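Work Package 4 report. The design task specified in the project plan requires that, given a folded chain encoded as structure tokens, an amino acid be chosen for each position. We show below one input record used in the internal validation round.
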């Protein structure tokens, strides 16, 4: 992740990712990416966080929104079992 931005790859630490992946494939191996599915809980909130709140699609912990600490701030998570969650990404 570059500068904690969504859907990015850090080119300093992973600049050779394509070549590395090609080497794995040539050796008959696979690369499995583990994606952190959280939405940034920074203030002011980003558009995805706002939409998730508007559509009432965030995972709750009782009556409060569930928050998980991250290296920079905290993250909240979409409840993918709610149909409205799909609208957040449109």
């Amino acid at each position: 992740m570059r500068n904690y931005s969504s859907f990015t790859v850090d080119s300093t630490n992973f600049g050779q990712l394509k070549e590395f992946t090609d080497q794995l494939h040539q050796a008959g191996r696979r690369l499995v990416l583990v994606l952190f599915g959280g939405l940034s809980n920074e203030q002011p909130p980003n558009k995805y966080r706002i939409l998730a709140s508007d559509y009432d699609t965030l995972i709750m912990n009782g009556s409060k929104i569930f928050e998980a600490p991250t290296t920079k701030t905290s993250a909240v998570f979409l409840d993918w079992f709610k149909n409205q969650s799909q609208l957040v990404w449109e």
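The mean pLDDT is 86. Validation will be extended to a larger panel in the next phase.
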